[in-house]
């Protein structure tokens, strides 16, 4: 079995997921295949099963995500580029971190809901109207999905969600499998919103639509003041890449082939 030194997502970091490796590693394999083993799928490099940094066999919850992981390995050229391997990163993180302590993952998610982006109302009339148009239905969906109520806030004040909201959401989060929960955490940190990330996994939204919801305020400011080339556009490209991978992992068990 092959153990690749692939660094998983570090949950202490808020923002885009990163995968790092201590030194450049040359591509050391030729053939990449996928193989089903029981309820899970494995990726094999020259017949050797890929393992996580902690030495766990990289179990994947469906043929679709296994094929995506295999495509990432196939696409590598002279040297491996972990930053271009979001599916592999999520798979490793789900097993090495999320599965080991799902309760800690849930605890990391709840503060995002306490200060969720979509629960703040802008001061300007135009922005507030756009937020209500785009975020209003999203909040309604989340409230129905989790059986809770959310509150709105403006300015610097925090939303005053009902006391039972966070415990109810936490209870439902504990029901998710490690890959789904891991994908939700990564998407939440990327969007800075648990509500938006939940829609990525459980609502009929594309990754592009989720990006638009996550970037609503920033896009509004760009319309007014313009975009800084080489910053905003690259950031959105990275966000979209991770949203797409999170969406597939979050739905893998429900749509397993």
UniProtKB/TrEMBL annotation:
UniProt entry keywords in alphabetical sequence: Chaperone, Mitochondrion, Transit peptide
GO CC terms: mitochondrion
Pfam families assigned: ATP12
InterPro entries hit by this protein: ATP12_ATP_synth-F1-assembly, ATP12_ATP_synth-F1-assembly_N, ATP12_ortho_dom_sf
GO BP annotations, alphabetical order: mitochondrial proton-transporting ATP synthase complex assembly
Compartments, as annotated in UniProt: Mitochondrion
Matches recorded under PANTHER family: ATP SYNTHASE MITOCHONDRIAL F1 COMPLEX ASSEMBLY FACTOR 2, ATP SYNTHASE MITOCHONDRIAL F1 COMPLEX ASSEMBLY FACTOR 2/ATP12 PROTEIN, MITOCHONDRIAL PRECURSOR
Family: Belongs to the ATP12 family.
Protein name: ATP synthase mitochondrial F1 complex assembly factor 2
């Amino acid at each position: 079995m092959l153990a690749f030194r692939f660094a998983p997502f570090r949950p202490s970091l808020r923002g885009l997921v990163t995968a790092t490796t201590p030194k450049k590693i040359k591509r050391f394999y030729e053939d990449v295949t996928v193989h089903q083993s029981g309820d899970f799928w494995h990726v094999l490099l020259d017949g050797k099963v890929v393992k996580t940094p902690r030495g766990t066999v990289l179990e994947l919850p469906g043929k679709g995500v296994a094929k995506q992981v295999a495509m990432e390995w196939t696409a590598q050229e002279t040297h491996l580029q972990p930053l271009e391997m979001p599916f592999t990163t999520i798979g490793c993180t789900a097993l090495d971190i999320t599965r080991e302590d799902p309760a800690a993952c849930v605890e990391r998610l709840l503060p995002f809901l306490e200060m969720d982006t979509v629960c703040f109302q802008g001061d300007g009339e135009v922005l507030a109207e756009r937020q209500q148009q785009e975020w209003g239905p999203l909040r309604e969906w989340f409230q129905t999905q989790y059986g809770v109520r959310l509150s709105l806030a403006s300015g610097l004040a925090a939303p005053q969600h009902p006391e039972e909201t966070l415990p109810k959401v936490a209870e439902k989060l504990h029901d998710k499998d490690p890959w789904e929960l891991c994908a939700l955490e990564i998407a939440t940190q990327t969007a800075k919103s648990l509500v938006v990330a939940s829609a990525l996994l459980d609502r009929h939204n594309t990754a592009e639509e989720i990006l638009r919801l996550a970037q609503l305020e920033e896009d509004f400011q760009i319309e007014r003041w313009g975009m800084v080339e080489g910053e905003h556009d690259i950031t959105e490209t990275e966000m979209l890449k991770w949203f797409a991978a999170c969406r597939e992992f979050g739905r893998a068990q429900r749509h397993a082939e």
